[in-house]
Amino acid sequence: MDVLKAALVLLAGCGLDVGAAQPWVPIGEVTGRLAAETSPPPRAAPPAPATVRVVTWNLDEENDPGTAALAAAIAADPDLAAADVFLFQEEEAYPSEGRSRAAVLAELLGVGYAYVPARPKADGTHGLAIMSRYPIESAMRMDLPATNGQPRIAIAADIALGARVLHVIDLHLETYLNAEERLAQLRPAVLDVLPEVVIAGDFNMGFLQWITTAAPIVSASAAYDQSPAVESYMGALGYDDTSATSGVTSHAFGEEAKLDAVFAHGLDIAFGGVDRVGPSDHWPLWFDVHLP
Amino acid sequence: MRALPLLLALAAPAHAEPADRPHAVYVELLGKGGLWGLGYDWQPTPRVAIGAVASFYQLDGDRFTTLAPYVAVYPLLHGRHRAFVQGGPDVVRRATPSPGPEWQGMATTAYSGEVSVGYEYRTAVLVRAYAIVGIGERVAPSIGASLGWTF
Question: Please, are residues A107 and A42 in contact by the beta-carbon 8 Å criterion?
Answer without folding.
Answer: yes
